[in-house]
Give the backbone structure.
Amino acid sequence: MLLLRAAGAVCILGLAACAATPGEDYGFDSKPLSDLRANVWVDPNGCEHWVIDDGVEGYLTPRRNRDGTPVCPKAGSAPGTAGTTEVTFEAIAWTDPNGCQHWASDHGVKGFMSERLARDGTPVCPGKVKPLPEVITLGADALFDTNKSDLRPEAIAELDDFGTKMNKLKKTRLRITGHTDSRGSEPYNQGLSERRAASVAAYLAQNFGLQSETGGLGESSPVAENTTTAGRQANRRVEITILD
């Protein structure tokens, strides 16, 4: 079942596009759904609700006018007059520029677009990319073998996921900084941290077109004590700062 929550936005099916908000015309970016059998349920207060079933899951949502007010043609009638009226219409799932879905429907009288919500009331946004934090920390042990700066095969999936999100967010410039634990000499750790940062930058540039400033801080900027295994592991890292 599909939840329809009527919103202020309006769309008439059959048009080439529909407006998410007045003055904004994005067009449909969606897959047509099969015809849906919808019930209009009238509650004891005389207000209507949509009950729609696509064979997967279902729940109820108020039916609203274009201006967002409830449709209550029987308001004021005696309590207990609840009933159902069955109508059939085709619904289209429209994905807005933020990756969230809306139901655009037309039952032959008027069409409208409404936000698609999950059972818990949260928006259904399968195409939405969550904002990345300003600084992303990648564990060096997942990226490199001990004392190496060549990327491990296991690192590729992690960097591919990061690069894909950066492209979707239209981010293009990074600062990549390598860090090590305190084992080994300071000059060696400094060089290793720089080489590791450069390796990550090269992969992201080649595969995702991301441009990076690179550098290394060796062992000089720990985030944990180097006296424990867990602490040293936390200090072996690559930090990525999003610039643009």
Observations:
- The longest strand covers residues 83-95.
- The radius of gyration is 27 Å.
- Residues 1-36 have pLDDT under 50 and may be disordered.
